[in-house]
Amino acid sequence: MIMTEERKDKKTNAYACSGWWLAGGLLFWLAWSCADDWTNDPNYSHGWIILPLFVFFLFQRAKHFLDVEITYKKPGWISWVWLLPILILTVELVRLTPFYWRPVFWVIYFMLAAYSLTLLWPSQGKTAIRVLGFPLLFLATALPWPTAFELETTRVFSFFIADLVGEVLLLSGIYTEVQGRVIFLEGTSIGVDEACSGLRSLQSSLMVGLAVGEWFRLRIVPRTGLLLLSLVGAIL
């Protein structure tokens, strides 16, 4: 039986709608999983800003790059139908355990990224990367870092800030001695704790640099320069 063009269009639209609803469900699951960190951890409170910006940038790129005239073919996301329930159940069981394991957030994120590319690639090819690439990269800045990596990064930044402040004070003519994260002055000492490590400003500056570059549709070189300027500003 030959399928008419009208029936093809209806079936294609049904595939697309159901596929994107499933992608939205994965995004909601990711946001739900990260909500506690976004609400209670000041280092990741910017996640509530990144989420709506992610949706906005995604729609803007889809409107700019996406070819609405898609060909009729079996969508790639169909192959996920049997796999997704198993993955979701497994990951959710791990997430609900008493152990606080941040890599689960990244597993959900990569599931969303892989599924979205599978959904768009059959009809759009490499254009799918242009549409989804930046929004997904931007969304990743909202995810809580794995605890071990975050602690090590905080420690390195704390030592760096202490050394930097000690050098500035010496250049200002004030005798200082730096031992680890403690700056010794005459008669007193100053400690650089986790809150002063610059991690929060680093993440916020990274978000702002990426968002401004995308908002004004800057080219690669200006975006890179803006991003580097934001990172330098966060450290200093």
Largest sheet: 3 strands, antiparallel
- Uncertain residue ranges: none
- Compute the average pLDDT: 82
Shape: flat
Q: Which structural category do the helix and sheet elements fall into?
A: mainly alpha
Strand element count: 3
* Alpha plus pi helix count: 8
Fraction of residues in β-strands: under 5%
Cα separation of the termini = 69 Å
| Helix fraction by DSSP (H/I, runs of at least 4) | 55-70%
User: Biggest sheet: strands side by side, in what order?
Assistant: 1-2-3
Radius of gyration computed on alpha carbons:
23 Å
SSE pattern = HHHHHHEEEHH
Task: Write the SSE topology.
Layout: H1 5-40, H2 47-65, H3 84-95, H4 103-124, H5 127-140, H6 147-171, E1 177-179, E2 182-185, E3 188-191, H7 199-215, H8 220-235
Helix pairs in contact: 1-4, 2-5, 3-4, 4-5, 7-8
Textual characterization of the structure:
By secondary structure, the chain is mainly α. Helix content is 68%, strand content 5%. It has helices spanning 5-40, 47-65, 84-95, 103-124, 127-140, 147-171, 199-215, 220-235; strands at 177-179, 182-185, 188-191. A three-stranded antiparallel beta sheet has the order 1-2-3, covered by helices on one side. A hairpin with a 2-residue loop joins strand 2 (182-185) and strand 3. Helix 1 runs antiparallel to helix 4 (103-124), helix 2 (47-65) packs antiparallel against helix 5 (127-140) and helix 7 runs antiparallel to helix 8 (220-235).
